[in-house]
Amino acid sequence: MILIDTHTHLFLEHFDKDREEVIKDSIKNGVQKLFIPNIDSSTTKQVVKMGKDYPNICYPILGLHPTSVKENYKKELEDLEHWLAKEKFYGIGETGIDLYWDKTFIKEQEEAFRYQINLAKQTELPLIIHSRESFDEIFSIIDELNDDRLKGIFHSFTGSIEQAEKILSYKGFKIGIGGIVTFKNSGLADVVAKIGLEHLVLETDSPYLAPAPNRGKRNQSSYLTLIAQKIADVYHVDMETVAKITTENAKKLFQI
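The structure assignment produced for this chain is given below.
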């Protein structure tokens, strides 16, 4: 059984003391490939280093996270172009819009999102979208810019079935399901059951959002097996089926 964690921030300080062990534990549990989205220019070097230190295991993704969009966002976007010319990346992100923490820079977030959508289309790389309390704003922008070059993942999906159907209407996108699907009162499992396994990829978003029974602890990629098992329960299939389909979805999307 081979699983792919399509979203982990393994470069963060949460893993500084045991990063090597976390990766070994991931592989031991069948989670053999880890996609690592950037946050901003302060973390780009770490993301690149992960790809070089662990080739064919860790795959760097370059982007500007919406919560990092501040007064200097144009300089941050220029930095993306600089790194794209220097190193190999497997996606653009994570980008998007976040209206949960702070709405001060909403216009700048929208501009940065548009910029990264166009970057993803130019490079033919998948776009990793962060959409916290911002589905309407994100849909509006994608409706404007979508074409057959645009593909990607709506990361850490927690929306409704109507929002899921809107995402799937874009054709090029998969829905990223993480630990929240294991939370008893999230309601996400009921939505997932109506989507179809062929539209999903799996993720941890580690070190955040650890699945039950590890909720509240530091998340890590080996816990993807708990998410996969929950998905298997939702669809009444075995874990091998979940692994096969979601892994193939991820490989096709990221072209590995």
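Interim note for the steering committee: Strands lie at 3-5, 31-37, 58-61, 92-98, 127-132, 152-154, 173-177, 200-202. Residues 3-254 form a domain with the TIM Barrel fold (CATH 3.20.20.140).
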